Amino acid sequence: MSDIFFIEEEDLTSPEVLRFIHYHEKSHLYWTSDWSPSFYSRLAYEGLISTTYESEEGGVVLIPELQRRYAVLDWKNLHISGHIRKILRSEQSNTYQLCINRDLQKVLTEIKNYHDPSWLNSEYARIMTKLQEEDNPSPCKTISVELRGGGGELLAGEVGYTIGNIYTSLSGFCRRDSEHKNCGSLQLVLLAMLLRQKEFAFWNLGHSEMEYKHHLGAKVLEREDFLIRWKQFRDKECQSLRGNYSLYDLLP
Q1: Gap between the Cα atoms of 158 and 108, Å rounded
Q2: Fewest CB within a 10 Å sphere: which of 11, 61, 85, 146?
Q3: How far is CA 74 from CA 146, 197, 238, in A?
């Protein structure tokens, strides 16, 4: 079992510490009590994905992780299942809308309700909110994603962030009822189409163990290979994702 090291913002100014974080294979988890958006952004810039941990005593800390393996989706590998193709060809498809940065607070609430317990606590939500503000100077920009039906009802969604022209997913939700059982998959496919259309380099889906990521077409990259690609694109400019998109807007 690897040690979990304490980390603070000053550590990320040290080339020696960064080399340890990036290339020490036995270490992948860190912890910090610094909840500042600037530190979170710097961690994200270095490739660490942060969640939270609550101790039995009730204390909560941020847990940045430089994963050993990453699930990465390249657009040429995007897989659209038969169920989703059927939805895309149906008359019902005209009723769906993919909305970006429309209602972050609603998305955060739905994620917390969907995952019980959820690591996405109020402090984490505050960071996400600050990093979505228009005057946010950091390279990390919060993205909220919503799939809405014809009546405007929220069917599925997620929260993540952009660094350069890379999008990273954090957590999501979808309706559980049988009528909308494919909405989570539809949201993922439509988001992939949007990212491809906006010429993003790739989609960082984080942990590689979850089956739905492989069904989407993601491939597993070892940390060293992931970091080569990450550093290649993390300083690139990206197109804005904000907006409301119909299927007509997204289909090639």
Answers
A1: 8
A2: 85
A3: 22, 13, 16
